[in-house]
Amino acid sequence: MKIAFITDLHIDAPGNFPLGLDTRAQFLKTLDYAADSGCEALILGGDLCHKTGDRDIYSWVKNEVYKRFDLVYAVPGNHDDPVLMAEIFGTTNDLHETELYTSHLLGGIEFLFSDTSSGYMSESQWSWLFEKAKKQHTDVFIIMHHPPVLVGSKHMEPKYQFNQMSKAAELFKEFNSKQFHVFCGHYHLDRTVVSGNMHLYLTPSTFVQIHPQYSDFVRGSDFIGYREIIVGEGSGYCTETLITGSIIPIGV
Fold first, then answer.
1. Full 3-state SS string of 10-67
2. For the chain, which end, N or C, has fewer CB atoms within 10 Å of the first or last residue's CB respectively?
3. Residue 251 belongs to some domain of the structure
4. b/e map of 57-93 (b: 16 or more CB within 10 Å)?
5. Residue 252 counted as domain residue
6. 233 vs 159, which has greater pLDDT?
7. Before 18, cis peptide (omega within 30)?
8. How many domains does the chain have?
9. Is residue 155 situated within a structural domain?
10. How far is CA 221 from CA 44, 100, 205, in A?
11. Pick from 110, 71, 111, 108: which is nearest to 91 by CA?
């Protein structure tokens, strides 16, 4: 199965262009590219909305993704409203109070979809994650918005980083005989990080990239793109970032 992982859309209201960029057009360009490349499923990695969760924006995103994909999954980011997002996408059965987390079998692999929209996870969600990891034979696949380890972005760290990295370290250490494969966004950066038994795949935004070497916000590469994950029988997989184009300034 070929899966498209698209993250950090930052869609705003019609006529609003964050940083002077057409985030709707950039997202649709990436969405079309993924659909045309033969991806069978779509995972949205959070920050669907630019500032805060918005009913109309979620409805627009839902309409566009289901035009192209039958299998759609989503985790909330720090600019999302998990409860509203679940309502619009019809996933209220996956709500645990105000957290949206669940698991799905894709290509023979169980993916764990976590909710880090608050910058942390509740004890209930951690208990669920530990129990799910315990049941996996050798590999644990996790989808989450925030990277659970440091990745070396001076703008994002420490101000915007995940607040429970020590708890994530406990998870990886508890099951040190297993391999963790974590797919996330949030940092607007394409990077792979390997730390012990944890393999982290940061995915670029369809909005704008952030230069990792500056503490102030400095725009990085002008490309937009997504991550492709190909899984088959068993726990094997391959993944790569695909560039779908450049940012689209208004008036250009």
1. CECCCCCCHHHECHHHHHHHHHHHHHHCCCCEEEECCCCECCCCCHHHHHHHHHHHHH
2. C
3. no
4. bbebbbebbeebbeebbbbbbbbbbbebbbebbebee
5. no
6. 159
7. no
8. 1
9. yes
10. 21, 32, 11
11. 71
CB 136 within 8 A of CB 174: no
Q: How confident is the model at residue 233 (pLDDT cuts 50, 70, 90)?
A: low
Residue for token pair 């590999």: 139
Structure tokens at 68: 């192209």
With respect to residue 68, please indicate whether it lies within any of the assigned structural domains.
yes
> Which pLDDT score is estimated for 236?
79
- Residue 121's domain is classified under what CATH number? 3.60.21.10
Cβ neighbours around 52 below 10 Å, total: 11
List pLDDT tens digits, range 58-75.
Answer: 999 999 999 999 999 999
| H runs (alpha helix) in the chain | 23-36, 55-68, 82-89, 123-135, 165-174
Centre a 10 Å sphere on the Cβ of residue 171 and count the other Cβ atoms it contains: 18
Range of the domain at 34: 2-246
pLDDT in tens, 187-227: 999 999 999 999 999 999 999 999 999 999 999 999 999 99
> Tokens standing for 201?
């795949």
Within a 13 Å sphere around the CA of 242, how many CA atoms are in the beta-carbon half?
Answer: 23
